[in-house]
Structure formats: C-alpha cells, structure tokens
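PT: before anyone asks, these are the final sequences, not the draft ones from last week. 539 residues across everything. Please model them as a single complex and drop the result in this thread when it's through.
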Amino acid sequence: MTSTKGPLTPALSPEGRGSVSPKVRIERLSKTFQTNGHEVSVLNDVTLDVREGELVCILGPSGCGKSTLLNIVGGFVPPTSGGVTIDGEPVRGPDPRRVFVFQERGVFPWLTVEGNIGFGLSRVSAAEKARRIAHYVRLVGLEGFETAYPQELSGGMKQRVEVARALAVDPDVLYLDEPFGALDSITRLVMRSELLRIWEAERKTILFVTHDIEESVQLADRIVVLSARPGAIRKIVDVDLAHPRDLSSPRYLALRDSIFEEIGLAHRI
Amino acid sequence: MSTPESLLEPLPSGERKPGSLLTVLLPLSTAALLILAWHVLVVATGSEIFPSPMEVLRGVGELAQKGVLASYIGDSLWRVACGYVIALVLGIPLGLALGWYPAAAAALNPVIQVLRPISALAWIPIAIVLFGVTNLAAIFLIFLASFFPIVVATMNGVRNVPMMYLSAGRNFGLSVPALFARVILPAALPRVLTGLRVALGVAWLVVVAAEMLAVDSGLGYLVIDSRNAGKRYDLVVAAMLLIGLIGLGLNSLVRLIERMRAVRWGFQGS
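LR: through. Structure below.
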C-alpha cells in the first residue's frame, strides 16, 4: 500500500523526532524465496533498532541478503515472517517518507537534472518546487548542470542527482543500496565525504548497505555485520569515532581490523 | 566541496559529429554518378521503352502542369496519415496493456503473432469485400500494416522498463496511471519510436500497392495508370522516384524525433 498523501514537509512528520523510541524497528525478520521448487532461506531472524538520525551500515558479503533486507524495510518486498515498523507504524509498501537510493542507474534518463530532482514534488506549489530544486542542486554541487541530461553526466554526478532527488521530498529515512558501488575508487571517497556533509546538514536516518568494510567504518555510527546466506546478524559494532574521521588513527585501524577478523579475513594479501 | 568532481565524459560513440560537408557531398555525388550511368545506359542501348533522366524530369513537369502531381502526393499521404493515426491511437494503448498485464499478453499475444506475419497485401480481397473499391479499403490496409509493429514495439518497450525505474516511481507515491504517464511511457518511448518508424515505412510501402488496386488516385495509382494508359514509362519512373524520396522524408521525420534529448538516451550506438 502506498501513501497517496505522504507528508512532504518536516512540519507534517514531527512525531518521533528526538524521542527515545527507535525510528526503525526490524523484528525477527526472515525471508525465504522459492526457486525451482525448493526453498532458499535468505534472511534468518534479523532484529535491529535504528535510532532517529543514526547512520547505520549493513555490511556483508555478496549474496548475504543485505539488499533483500533493505528492500523489505523499504516496503518493496514482503517478509516471510517478522516485520518492520517505522515510528511504530508497520511498513506495508513503499512510502515517500522513506526514499530508496539505488546505484546511479536509478536516475531517469528522460529527465534533466532538474526534472529528476523535482520528480517527487508534484504535490507542492511551483514556487516551492523551484526553491527546493535550486536548494538541492546546490547541496549536491550540480550548479550549472540543471538542464543537463543524465547521459551527459559522469557516474558520480548521476549519483548526486539521485541523492538530491531523494532528499528533495524531505524524507525521514534514506535507504542506500551500495550507492557508490559502481563508481571509481577516487569518486567513491569523494562521494562518502559528500554524503557525510549532507547527512550532517539534513540529519536524516540512513540505512546504508555495503560490502565494503572500509566504507562502513568511514561512514557509520554503527555497523551491522551480517553472516553469509542466510543472512543473520553476527555482530553490531559501535563506531566511536567523531567526524571527520582520521583514516590512519589507531582507533580507526583497530575497528577496521576487528571487522576484518569478524568476517574471517586476514588483512594481508 | 561543492563543485562536481568530474568533467563531462566524452560523448558516447553514437553521437559522433557528422563530418559536416562530406556527409552531404558524398551521397550527392553518388546520386549524380548513378543518374549519369542511367543516362549513358539509355542512350547507349537506344532503348525505346526505358526513359532517360531528362525524360523523367519532363514527366514530373507534365504531371505538375496537369495539377495531378500535388493532388496524387496529397492523396497518398492523406491515406497513410489516416491509417497510421488509427493504428497509433489503438496500437499504443493496446501495447501498453499487453506489456503491463501478463494475463492480457498471454491471451492476445498468440493471436497477434499469427496475424502479424500476414502481409497487408494478402488482406486486399477482404478489404475490397468489406469496403469496396474505396479510400476506406486503402486506409484499412495501411492500418493493418502499421498496427502490429506498433503494438509489438510498445509491448516490448513496457516489458523492458528496468525494475529500478518502477520501484523509484512507486517510492515517490505514484498511482498506476501516474506511473504509466511519468515512468513507463517515457522509459518505453525509445522502443516505441523505433516501432513507429518501422510502421511508417511499412505503411508507405503498402499505400502504393493499395492504390494500384483499390482506388484511382495517389502515387501507386499513377504507377499502374501510366503503364496501362499509353505505356508512359517516364511517368512510371517519375512516380517511383517520388515514392522513394517521400519515403526517405518520412523516415527522416521520425529520426528527427528520435534525436530529441528526452529520448536520445535510448538510441545510443544506433
């Protein structure tokens, strides 16, 4: 079920802000798929609370079900058992108050940068729409590219468009599914610091799925480490480092190494 | 930092700039050579039947003077427009429905796949039984010829819309009609346009044949009438060349639409 009158301004969704109860509550979530007659268990008994304004990374190897987990939380896929509540309200379908950011391929190629960013703003006045588009174009650093089409942009710029498109509807929660996975490693680093800058400016609750250990330690308040399929929570790591993070500090390296060990990888090649 | 970190990537190969003058001069000189060869062959063989390029040009002048040139071209284009627009109005919604509802496709697609390979020309006897030797018969044939390519291209266009676009559309709270208007149709548009271009080409092929049998005006009629009434092969060839040139024009027209920025993303490398 889709909310047809999703609140687009913060004034309409004040509940839960600053309160102690979790923003997102994932309870005993399991998922099995049917393939060729037999059942494949993808997620097994995942329970997790995410606080308002928190940036949580869900980390795991390919095929561990982390994307499925995010798709269930986003309302795109129904769980087999267990459930998700946001602000105490069960998730029954996608909702404009929580926006999913795909890899850069989710940008609509038939719309300009402006058209993409304004896509979710059909219910606000023209003046407000123009104001928000201008604001988010500036926030993600795409001034001068307002009327460009996605095929004229680089991968990193397309990803900025998608993040801006999501932010423009002023959601409470952002779901990012390996958003920087298709970018080159330099652009990826830039985009991480951009994301942190935007997160600090907008203070959204963020669930960020990644298979990149370094990425999770650089970004997250907490890292949820999933096991291989069927995905279950192995460990939750609190990242007690202030931003901006020094990527050569002993504490950063110790945290990173503990996760490498947790996943069973020696960090030597 | 607040400036985009990368410069524009190089243009994809599909957008190579034409070599300006060369792309105009090369085809023109090919055409000039062919016309020269045609002239030399007619003169060298002393053909009584086959007209030289100059005779054909004079034929065109004669048709223009009699006033039939413009009216025949107009008649042919009008028939194509009628049949094609009906095919478009019925074919695009049907294609959208078949692409979106698997049950509709399961029910109708086999029928379409059987009807589609039947040339519109095979329908001529039935068209004449239904509509007599009239404009309607010709329009019906053009409709049949363009309807199936449009339906099939639209259906495939919808089926190939990436899941991600649909998810994003639903995430922003779009209802199904809004999803069609704002996501499915624009995402399918490049494939739909390809179908429209193919359909227009077929419609133009069919109008000539339809006019030979079902009506007494138009370029197809001109071909058959010029031969039957006095073996005027200069007029036959003139009509043939006009058919070719107008066909090229129609094709270029759709190509022009395909170059619009909102759909160009779907034609890269073509």
